[in-house]
Design goal:
The protein has 207 residues and is mostly helical. The protein has helices at 7-27, 38-48, 57-76, 85-105, 110-138, 149-156, 166-188, 190-193. The protein has one domain. Helix 4 (85-105) packs antiparallel against helix 5.
Length: 207
């Protein structure tokens, strides 16, 4: 059974819920590190929203919540910067996740969606970790990793001694993205989730 939400209503719901969950996750980063709904919102949302702008919902939610963080920081300590390098990297990954969702949308299946979710998780993990590794080296910020392929590999696997291993963030990211993907399918397309829908599902008209 496919749920037919009006496109703008669905977009607003995704932005509000995604923003609230991301703000909550930011307040308790040690509870479930690297768990956020925005990859799933970018990926699955693009399948059920108009092609022209549906892929922008995830990046827009990220920028909106970053603006909220900026305002909060400025109010509390006068610090904060919205358009950091890592923010731009994350926005690019979310946009790519939306593009993949559009690509899958015309002939989607549960297997393709779950595989796409894992692919998006890997893209996010390696893109952000690689940027962090490169950023400290480029700015000479006393990097904890060597400026070599071995240092990059360490950054993406065991991490720095005394800290949570990087692979924990990968595991949490993959499982969290899969969870939120399944939740969105449960709400938006229960028939597809339980194998009762045809592969081809009409997209909403572009508005």
């Amino acid at each position: 059974m496919k749920r037919d939400f009006p496109p703008y209503t669905l977009a607003i719901i995704l932005v509000v819920v995604g923003g609230m969950l991301r703000l909550l996750e930011s307040q308790y980063p040690d509870f479930l590190p690297s768990v956020s709904p925005l990859i799933a919102i970018s990926f699955v949302g693009a399948m059920y929203l108009p092609r022209k702008w549906g892929w922008l919902v995830g990046p827009f939610t990220l920028l909106l919540t970053d603006l909220a963080f900026l305002k909060l920081n400025q109010t509390t300590d006068g610090a904060g910067s919205m358009f950091s390098g890592v923010t731009l990297v994350v926005v690019a990954v979310y946009a790519l996740a939306g593009g993949l969702g559009i690509l899958i949308s015309q002939r989607k299946s549960l297997g393709k969606i779950l595989g796409g979710s894992v692919l998006c998780s890997l893209a996010f993990y390696f893109a952000t970790n690689t940027f962090a590794w490169w950023h400290d080296l480029a700015l000479h910020l006393n990097p904890g990793y060597a400026p070599t392929l071995a240092g990059w590999w360490q950054a993406n696997t065991v991490g720095l001694p005394g800290y949570i291993p990087s692979l924990v963030f990968l595991r949490n990211g993959v499982l969290g993205d899969l969870f939120f993907t399944l939740v969105l399918l449960l709400v938006l397309d229960r028939g597809l989730l339980f194998g009762q829908a045809p592969n081809r599902t009409p997209r909403p008209a572009s508005v």
